[in-house]
Design brief:
With 459 residues, this protein is an alpha/beta fold.
Length: 459
């Protein structure tokens, strides 16, 4: 729906929201230059002539002329604003991370007055540069139309984003009065993840797997892929004896199966908002989701069974593209604001508690990948649980997101409270070395680096 309103008088005296010079110490003139605009100058001059009219008739007549001219300017600008139609042309509803999208705005003047000083503002939340401003390079004549366009890269993170509202500002020929045309219809777009290819990770095959895969196990597997028949050897399981063949030959014969099996991989993604830092795609939250999807995609390519567990969600073990698409759709729904506003979304707990609950789903001999920002206090609780799981024969991998690498790009946007909390996130390299001594496989991913680099154990 389109609304046309005149800008309130106070807006001509207020400093634009994007300008904040109080902390810089500029001279007074520079700090208050926003007060020198066509509106204040026009009516200041009008008041000056009217005041001079108390002493001289000519000055009074000039003041009245300025008032009449101001009335004409006001109504001509209002008529032009009411006759203006601003609309955004359709944008495809599904985009991919880092895809560049072009948005076209059509402006149509249906009235008899030309449109001056047209400026269009819009918000594109799928981009880090979310604020968009388009200025019309020329006057839009009566009964004419034109198109303006802008391009944005979808680097604001995966998930659901809005385009809009669309706000157009028009003025009169002198720029004294401003009218705002608001198209408040929001266009929702879905930004799908761009899954980054990862190197092959050194996971172990599950000795209890019954599915063929890429991993060779030391003991005889339980794969459904039959390999052959051989004589019985001491220690062979009774379940593998070929009883019918044994009855015919009079000698114990054993069925042998493939030793190449797959692995059952459980990815645990800790989305506790208290330990995550950053904004949109420049956040530990986004890097964690990218890492989880990258690992799951790679393991599904290798025919492994994959499960995703988070603070309020878990999936069953599954394989194939359909399973990956299901988990992508689920991950798209999650945002830090949701978990902060709704404590029930943390019902599975965080850190150690989350891992303890996830351990009930993990079978012996399978693989666990725990993804979290490194926080000294929180990971201290998780470390003990990981030790216990490793003792149960589970192959443990830990993916740290280096919080300190996010500080420099976001330094001006962080509060003192956030900076103080970052102090608990130092020492990730020492923790990685300690985990290696304990027999775990740790990885570290950093802001601004490709994910694949973080998964090179010696990289």
């Amino acid at each position: 729906m389109i609304h046309v309103v005149a800008k309130p008088i106070r807006s001509y005296f207020s400093r634009p929201a994007s300008v904040d010079l109080d902390h810089v110490g500029f001279p007074p003139f520079h700090s208050y230059r926003h007060l020198l605009n066509p509106f204040t100058l026009y009516f200041g001059l009008t008041g000056l002539f009217l005041f001079g009219g108390l002493f001289q008739r000519t000055s009074f007549l000039i003041g009245l002329t300025l008032i009449v001219c101001g009335v004409y300017l006001f109504f001509s600008a209002r008529s032009a604003a009411q006759s203006l139609v601003v609309q955004r042309l359709p944008v495809k509803p599904q985009l991919v991370e880092f895809e560049e999208v072009q948005v076209i705005v059509e402006v149509r003047n249906r009235g008899g007055f030309p449109v001056y000083g047209l400026v269009i503002d819009e918000t594109f939340t799928a981009s880090l540069r979310s604020r968009v401003r388009l200025a019309m390079p020329r006057t839009l004549p009566a009964h004419s139309h034109m198109r303006l366009q802008y391009k944005r890269k979808c680097d604001g993170g995966m998930g659901h984003h809005d385009i809009g509202p669309l706000e157009a500002t028009v003025t009169d020929v002198l720029g004294v009065f401003k009218f705002l045309i608001v198209e408040d219809t929001l266009l929702e777009v879905e930004v799908l993840p761009r899954i980054e290819p990862l190197p092959e990770l050194a996971f172990r095959g599950s000795p209890h797997s019954t599915l063929y895969g890429y991993y060779d196990v030391a003991q005889r597997g339980f794969s459904v892929n039959f390999s052959g028949i051989r004589p019985y050897s001491p220690g062979d399981s009774l379940r593998h004896i070929a009883w019918k063949l044994t009855a015919r030959t009079g000698e114990l014969m054993v069925k042998e199966f493939e030793r190449s099996v797959n692995s059952e991989v459980t990815v645990v993604l800790d989305l506790n908002p208290e330990i995550h830092l950053g904004i949109k795609s420049q956040s530990t939250w986004e890097y964690g989701r990218d890492a989880a999807l990258g690992i799951m995609s790679r393991q599904l390519e290798m025919n492994n069974s994959v499960r995703l567990v988070s603070n309020h969600f878990f999936s069953e073990l599954g394989r194939g593209e359909d399973h990956l698409h299901h988990m992508c759709r689920e991950v798209l729904k999650w945002s830090p604001e949701q978990l902060t506003d709704d404590p029930s979304l943390l019902r599975w707990g965080v850190a150690g508690e989350l891992l303890m609950r996830a351990s009930t789903l993990i079978s012996q001999g399978s693989t666990l990948v725990y993804i979290c920002p490194y926080h000294k206090l929180e990971f201290g609780k998780a470390r003990e649980v990981l030790k216990h799981l490793a003792g149960e024969g589970i192959d443990v991998h830990v993916v740290f997101i280096d919080v300190n690498s996010f500080v420099a790009p976001l330094l001006r946007k962080l509060s003192w409270a956030h900076l103080a909390e970052v102090g608990y996130c130092r020492g990730v390299d020492e923790e990685v070395a300690e985990l290696r001594k304990m027999g775990f496989t740790p990885y570290k991913i950093k802001c601004g680096e490709p994910l694949a680099k973080g998964f090179l154990v010696n990289g």
